[in-house]
């Protein structure tokens, strides 16, 4: 028989093994599962990157189809006008070129006199499209763009548009051709690994990084992240598995996975941010050219992260519109603006603030009672609040008219924002009772240049004057642009020549400093555009 000491030793060893083996098994499973989950996570984002690339590629395909369905006299005014129209209408295409005998003959902005050949493509897609990865645009001469060629046409687009997918963790997204040509990346990453993934490296991980990829008939996409992201998941699972029993572990892990998915998904993160009111408004000063005074501001929403950084609006506004979260976000912006500026607006009756309204809200008019209650409670006059909507908000003319009529009866001025970048038409402007037109920065940039868009600006201004619209020019950055706009009779301007969008306290200081220097008497109400003008022929 074993003595007592031997029994104690064996029992102790058995107890230790009984304790250690399950822990090692749990740790091994947690590590395997964490890597698997993160690989699936990366693979999902690779797929979404492919979808984003295909969306942009489809817009290019549509441009080719529209141009090739008609017989054009090469580089005729009608031909160039059609290319320009398609460029403006497309969200992805920055320029269209037409080639004759392999030489660039004209673009969507006009004829080309220089000797520019079509060159050798970087890659050829399976259905006959050719890719040129680093093409300098003829008109702007800006950063190199991606060119897609078919037949006698090519279209230029920004590389980053192909990978602009909102991610829920820090990762790098990349896109390549099926033969391994790297097209675009969302941020810098290990060069050798990126090239290997572009050439078809299988999903996996090394000492520092994890990666996964996906491909379709045109492209290969990949996602790269730090390996520590997977081990963070492993640590969370271990903390839950070890102290709890098997049954409770199953319940809690299910709950944690559900909560994590809600918080980590882009929609869940945005929904939580709205619930926590993690948004602030910055204010882009609006300057009245006649007096040089700050007449008001455009309210711009910013999503503030816990570390103090901000998510760009072009990353979360489209998500909010797609998921229906734009409505509570609009309500939050309205409340923020009223809370921020109510006191100042009551003191400064000549001041106004412009609030951007989403297309769905402009169609439904749902936000008007919300705005009315907020202004009434703060004692702010409705005439001091302008409502801005992009052209898509007016596409359903009947619905938009009902909202506009209600808003104008309440005293608000209505402005069409980013004019000329969407699907606007003269009939739209003539049909709806609008009050103001905002000239998009892309047109202001062309002032004083040889760009083809420079000829558009005087036509927009003349049309707005003819319709008795007040005019606001966006993106003014030079004194020459300001002088041109003043001479052309534009009433209001905004842009970095005066100030970038400012936090509340900085804007209040700017307004005070700017208006203390005024040399002209205060403009009357009609000049500042605080009260909608009487009905005109443009009011339909």
UniProtKB/TrEMBL annotation:
Comp. bias intervals (Pro residues): 531-540
Membrane topology annotation: Multi-pass membrane protein
Database matches in Pfam families: CSS-motif (PF12792), EAL (PF00563)
Domain of life: Bacteria
Subcellular location: Cell membrane
Region annotated Disordered, chain positions: 518-540
Catalytic activity: 3',3'-c-di-GMP + H2O = 5'-phosphoguanylyl(3'->5')guanosine + H(+)
EC number per UniProt: 3.1.4.52
Keyword Cytoplasm found: no
Stated name of the protein: cyclic-guanylate-specific phosphodiesterase
Gene Ontology cellular-component annotations: plasma membrane
Transmembrane regions listed in the UniProt entry: 7-30, 129-148, 238-259
Xref: PROSITE patterns: EAL
Main location, first listed in the record: membrane
């Amino acid at each position: 028989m074993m003595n007592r000491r031997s029994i104690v030793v064996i029992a102790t060893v058995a107890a230790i093994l009984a304790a250690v083996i399950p822990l090692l098994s749990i740790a091994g499973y947690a590590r395997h599962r964490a890597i698997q989950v993160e690989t699936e996570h990366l693979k999902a984002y690779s797929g979404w990157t492919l979808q984003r690339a295909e969306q942009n590629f489809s817009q290019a395909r549509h441009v080719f189809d529209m141009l090739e369905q008609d017989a054009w006299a090469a580089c005729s005014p009608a031909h160039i006008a059609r290319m320009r129209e398609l460029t403006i209408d497309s969200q992805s295409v920055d320029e269209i070129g037409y080639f004759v005998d392999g030489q660039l003959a004209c673009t969507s902005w006009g004829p080309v006199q220089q000797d520019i050949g079509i060159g050798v493509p970087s890659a050829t897609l399976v259905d006959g499209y050719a890719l040129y990865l680093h093409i300098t645009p003829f008109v702007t001469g800006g950063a190199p763009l991606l060119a897609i060629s078919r037949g006698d046409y090519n279209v230029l687009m920004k590389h980053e548009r192909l990978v602009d997918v909102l991610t829920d963790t820090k990762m790098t997204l990349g896109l390549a051709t099926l033969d391994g040509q790297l097209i675009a990346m969302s941020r810098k990453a290990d060069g050798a690994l990126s090239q290997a993934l572009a050439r078809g490296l299988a999903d996996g991980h090394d000492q520092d990084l994890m990666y996964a990829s996906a491909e379709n008939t045109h492209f290969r996409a990949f996602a790269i992240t730090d390996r520590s992201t997977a081990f963070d998941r492993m640590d969370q699972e271990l903390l839950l598995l070890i102290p709890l029993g098997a049954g409770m572990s199953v319940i809690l892990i299910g709950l944690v996975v559900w909560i994590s998915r809600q918080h980590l998904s882009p929609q869940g993160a945005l929904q939580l941010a709205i619930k926590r009111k993690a948004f602030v408004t910055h204010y882009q000063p609006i300057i009245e050219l006649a007096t040089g005074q700050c007449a008001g501001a455009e309210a711009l929403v910013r999503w503030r992260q816990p570390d103090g950084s901000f998510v760009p609006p072009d990353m979360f506004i489209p998500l909010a519109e797609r998921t229906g979260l734009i409505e509570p976000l609009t309500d939050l912006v309205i409340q923020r603006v009223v809370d921020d500026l109510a006191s100042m607006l009551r003191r400064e009756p000549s001041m106004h603030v412009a609030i951007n309204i989403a297309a769905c809200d402009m169609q439904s008019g749902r936000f008007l009672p919300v705005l009315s209650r907020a202004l009434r409670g703060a004692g702010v006059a409705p005439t001091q609040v302008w409502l801005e909507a992009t052209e898509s908000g007016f596409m359903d003319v009947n619905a938009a008219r009902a909202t506009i009529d209600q808003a104008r009866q309440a005293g608000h001025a209505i402005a069409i924002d980013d004019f000329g970048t969407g699907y606007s038409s003269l009939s739209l402007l003539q049909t709806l009772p609008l009050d103001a037109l905002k000239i998009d920065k892309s047109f202001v940039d062309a002032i004083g240049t040889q760009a083809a868009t420079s000829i558009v600006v005087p036509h927009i201004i003349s049309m707005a004057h003819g319709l008795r619209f007040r005019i606001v020019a966006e993106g003014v950055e030079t004194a020459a642009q300001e002088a041109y706009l003043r001479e052309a009779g534009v009433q209001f301007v905004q842009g970095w020549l005066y100030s970038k969008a400012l936090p509340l306290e900085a804007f209040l200081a700017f307004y005070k400093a700017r208006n203390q220097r005024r040399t002209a008497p205060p403009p009357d109400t009609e000049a500042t555009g605080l009260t909608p003008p009487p009905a005109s022929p443009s009011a339909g």
